[in-house]
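Lab notes, practical 5.
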Amino acid sequence: MTFGKRQLVIASLVVALGAAVYLNWQFSDTSGIEVSESEASSVKQLGQTTYVNTEISTSEISNNSASDSKKEKAEKQKNKTNQTKTKAVNAEAKKEHFSAEKEKRNQSNEKAIESLTDIIESASSDESAKKSAVESAKELAENIKLQTDIENEIITRGFDDAYVIINNNSCCVSVFGGKLDDSSALAIKDIVNRQSDIEFTKITVSSSGK
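Output from the prediction step:
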């Protein structure tokens, strides 16, 4: 009798276990596989929206890059223009300084001539002073002519301007514009030596730039 009841209990457990396994499989299969049309549409729409946003972001980046490039080019052009203006201003300042130095030399020569002329024409000057003044005036006049002739020839060598100071059998030459190198400096010294007989070692040549 006991053995019969035990078999019934085991059989009941087997049936209950089988039913539980079947129900679990049924519910898992339904919730795991099926996707509604509305859900699929939502997923698709979300994917499309993401794609469109990506395109907009790329376009914005491209526009920003182009804008930055234009700003950079404009800034470079502005700097280049400013540099050109600065060079022009510096060149003009150097030219004015050069002209001023040349004018100072001319004024100094004129004052020296006036002083010598006063001595020569003064009734109070003795003969010795007058004779010395005449010699000095003659030498100064010759130097002024030499300076002018040398300057004019130097300019024909490709320089914008030049001024020359001759004193005590030595010569200082300053040029403006053009290219001053060893070759052109030697050519300038040759001009001075040929016209004035001043030795090469007593001739100095410099440039005031441009």
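Observations recorded by the TA: The longest strand covers residues 161-167. The radius of gyration is 52 Å.
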